[in-house]
Design brief:
heterodimer; A: 522 residues; alpha/beta; B: 319 residues; MetI-like fold; two-stranded antiparallel ribbon; 76% helix
Chain lengths: 522, 319
């Protein structure tokens, strides 16, 4: 039995977690759900004794089977915690790539847990690690044992992380967004695996996620957190059927679960009449092996094969597929960022624009919002003298765009670091649209955002699409997001387009096994 | 194997380009070796005679081709300035061969000191939690980094040579006569070279370790129940060494190429001093070979760094 009583965690003067009470019954899976910044991760890390040293527990305590692990006013007992960490409590992290030491073979990393807590011979340790690998569904375990993290796929890495966490059958497993960084197809397998481990080992699990739907699939009870407080706790179905808090209702609604967008009919495209803004015929996209070095090989690697499709004026074409299937390579070819192609691309928009996934790293941090919004206009003026603008016109256009993406004028002189993730993505969208392109490629534009943020950004993109008569190539690995946004859907698998058709049709009646799999697992 | 072939081709190409550049530079810079050798005894007839003797009356391209063919055959030519005795010219190979061990040993001792001292120091610094220790480390490294090496050399000579009398300033012993004494004498110049580099490397390693400490895998290591010590040495150090290795590579290239100032201050007959005197006397055959040597050293050290990368970080594969 694990109890968190009246826990408050402060960083300096700021309280990240405020008077939280949580109780985990033996063998249950408790979901902690909230947006980023709600204090769910801080709670979990404090429970695990992994919170950074600047953090202080100002009220309350944490009990593990009646042993007080941490308490307000008492310095952290590292020695006590070390006996629990890895042995009786363990953690699965969000990002399986960075959470494993890149310079150690994964077998040795899992083995370290055994070495720290058990007195076993070398052979015995190795055997147990291999068994654990088999138990988490890894194949070819000997080979995995001797591999480095970068040699494994994301799903395999997360299985290794899970093997590391469960090898000593700990009483408590804390899983912090364990599937967020993975593809939909892998997500489901990992959830199944966690459920299986829970039923076999009878561990108590604390499952942290921003995704209520995901929590619904695995948790018996759910605690909803907001601004450092638990605002609602209850059995999963009760939370979904009769949410008490407005916040919970908003979280449930924010989940883009098959809510079809509501577009005005007059704006919807009638497929026969409209002109094509983009025509792609028999397109092959290649990458040269070995990059651009003097000695780079002449061999080319084909990443997109035989792609043929159109995008009509005013249409949103959703492109879905797992990571590595060629989605980004295709969009780079359309933007002429990769000229190593065969086949034809006819684009009626001379300067198509792109919205990127990560609003944190794709905005230059030393520039102001105003400068960032004007930059595409300056660049365009240099490319195309007929579209050169005066500084005053650019300024006016930037203010106008700032309003269009739903932000106040006072943000004009701020820098990206002073903005939230959602606000940054609004600026990215503004950057893409300020040159008035008719075709915009959006590469996973909402994947780095919270669910509530996701809903707002998708809403914004749809509004702007109507207002400015845009066409989107909307790329996502999230089939729910695609469903919400797209008029038609294109499914890619290993560089090939395997299915293309109107959204409702594909969803109701998928023609390919792979599409069925994608739909089932979302 | 393909990797090595690429590296060797790059090396040869670079050496060729550098040798041409050095040759051209020597054509352009003012000053004439013949007048420099003859000095006040110069007469037009003797100048013509010496020019012919040194082959300087030939067109530049022919001279370069002759020179490079000789070098490729293993004949590095003779020095314009140094002579063995009254009748014999000094071969460049012999001249450099004489000085090279001094510089190489000096570099080896300095590098040994840098590695042995800076790595534990950097780790210790990264682990130090108290503000006093941190400030102390910070001030010490700041000061040692800021002091120029000639001044440091003078200080070391003064402190160890004149006050503590641990070595005799100016009492250089040739490695041919007394190797132990030679190494003993090298210790103090090596300290002068190493001290600022130790401070830089330690600071570099410390910063790198502190950055690495924020990585996700460190949190994973703690979640398994690792102690602070284990996290530092087993997990963080190896990852943190990557940028340090690059930095060490730069240092090695610098000191193997000859620490001109320190050789001067301690009166060491090394490559650095030879380079300075040869440039000032327009002793082209010597300078050209020394420039090729330095180029080779720099490229070779970076090659070693490249290999070391692959050893430390498995993510970098042989492309």
């Amino acid at each position: 039995m694990i109890r968190i009583e009246d826990l408050t965690v402060a960083f300096g003067e700021t309280e990240a977690v405020k008077h939280v009470n949580l109780e985990l019954k033996p063998g249950e899976i408790l979901g902690v759900v909230g947006e980023s910044g709600s204090g769910k991760s801080v709670t979990a890390l404090t429970l695990m004794g992994l919170i950074s040293e600047e953090a202080r527990i100002t009220t309350g305590r944490i009990l593990f089977d009646d042993v007080v692990l941490a308490e307000a006013g008492r310095p952290k007992d590292k020695a006590l915690y070390r006996k629990y960490q890895g042995d009786r409590m363990s953690m699965i992290f969000q990002e399986p790539m960075t959470s494993l030491n890149p310079t150690w073979k994964v077998g040795r990393q899992v083995e370290e847990t055994l070495r720290l807590h058990r007195d076993l011979s070398k052979e015995e340790r190795r055997r147990q690690v291999l068994d654990a690998f088999t138990a988490v569904g890894l194949r070819d375990v000997e080979k995995v044992y001797g591999s480095y993290p970068h040699e494994l796929s994301g799903g395999m890495r997360q299985r290794v992380m899970i093997a590391m966490a469960v090898i000593l059958h700990p009483g408590l497993i804390v899983a912090d967004e364990p599937t967020t960084a993975l593809d939909v197809t892998i997500q489901n397998q990992i959830i199944e695996l966690l459920r299986k481990i829970n039923s076999e080992q009878k561990n108590t699990m604390l499952f942290i996620t921003h995704d209520l739907n995901l929590a619904r699939r695995i948790c018996q009870r759910i605690a909803v957190m907001k601004d450092g407080r638990v605002v609602e706790t209850g059995p999963t179905e009760e939370i979904f059927e009769t949410p008490r808090e407005a916040y919970t209702r908003r979280l449930i609604q924010a989940v883009p679960s098959r809510i079809k967008k509501t577009r005005k009919t007059e704006n919807a495209v009638s497929p026969d009449k409209a002109d094509n803004i983009l025509e792609v015929r028999d397109l092959n996209v290649y990458y040269r092996e070995g990059g651009n070095s003097l000695f780079a090989g002449k061999r080319k690697h084909c990443v997109v094969e035989n792609a043929t499709f159109d995008i009509k004026v005013g249409e949103i074409l959703g492109l879905v597929g797992e990571s590595g299937c060629g989605k980004t390579s295709l969009s780079k070819a359309i933007l002429r960022m990769n000229k190593n192609i065969q086949g034809s691309i006819v684009c009626r928009e001379p300067y198509p624009q792109m919205i990127f996934q990560d609003p944190y790293s794709s905005l230059n941090p030393v520039k102001t919002v105003g400068w960032l919004l004007k930059e595409p206009l300056r660049a365009l003026g240099r490319l195309d003298p007929s579209r050169e603008m005066t500084e005053a016109d650019m300024e006016a256009a930037a203010y106008d765009m700032l309003r269009k993406v739903g932000m106040e004028e006072s943000y004009f002189h701020r820098r990206p670091s002073q903005l939230s993730g959602g606000q940054r993505q609004r600026i990215s969208i503004g950057q893409a649209l300020i040159t008035r392109p008719r075709l915009v490629i959006a590469d996973e534009p909402v994947s780095a955002l919270d669910v509530t943020m996701q809903a707002q950004i998708m809403e914004l993109m749809l509004e702007l699409q109507e207002e400015l008569k845009l066409s989107y190539l909307f790329i996502s690995h999230d089939i729910n997001v695609i469903y919400r946004m797209s008029d038609r859907i294109m499914v890619m698998q290993r560089g090939r387009i395997v299915e293309i058709g109107d959204t409702e049709g594909v969803f109701r009646n998928p023609g390919q096994e792979y599409t069925k799999l994608l739909l089932k697992e979302s | 194997m393909k990797y090595f072939a690429k590296k060797i081709i790059t090396l040869i190409m670079t050496l060729f380009v550098v040798s041409v550049a050095a040759f051209v530079a020597f054509q352009i810079i003012p000053g004439d070796v013949v007048t420099s050798i003859l000095g006040t005894e110069a007469t037009p007839e003797r100048e013509v005679q010496l020019r012919a003797q040194l082959g300087l009356d030939r067109p530049p391209i022919e001279r370069y081709v002759n020179w490079i063919t000789d070098v490729l055959k293993g004949d590095l030519g003779v020095s314009y300035r140094y002579s063995k005795n009254m009748n014999e010219m000094m071969p460049v190979a012999e001249l450099i061969g004489d000085k090279l061990p001094v510089t190489l040993w000096l570099a080896a001792v300095s590098l040994g000191i840098i590695i042995v001292v800076s790595i534990p120091l950097g780790v210790l610094w990264a682990r130090s939690r108290s503000r006093v220790a941190d400030a102390l480390f910070s001030v010490c490294t700041q000061v040692t980094m800021a002091v120029p090496s000639f001044f440091l050399g003078i200080l070391v000579t003064y402190l160890f040579g004149i006050i503590l009398k641990l070595f005799a300033p100016g009492g250089y012993v040739s490695y041919k006569e007394d190797f132990a004494g030679f190494l003993g004498y090298l210790l103090f110049p090596a300290i002068s070279i190493a001290l600022p580099k130790v401070a830089m490397t330690a600071r570099f390693l410390r910063n790198s370790m502190l950055t690495e400490m924020k990585s996700d895998y460190v949190r994973t290591a703690y979640s398994k129940g690792c102690t602070d010590r284990r996290v530092m040495y087993a997990h963080v150090l190896r990852n943190a060494l990557m940028p340090v290795v690059t930095f060490l590579g730069m240092i090695i290239a610098e000191i193997v190429a000859g620490s001109i100032v320190v050789e001067q201050v301690f009166g060491l007959p090394g490559v650095g001093r030879l380079l300075i005197s040869s440039i000032s006397t327009r002793d082209f055959p010597v300078v050209e070979i020394l420039i090729l040597y330095i180029t080779f050293v720099v490229i070779f050290v970076y090659f070693l760094v490249d290999i070391l990368y692959r050893v430390i970080d498995p993510r970098i594969s042989n492309r």
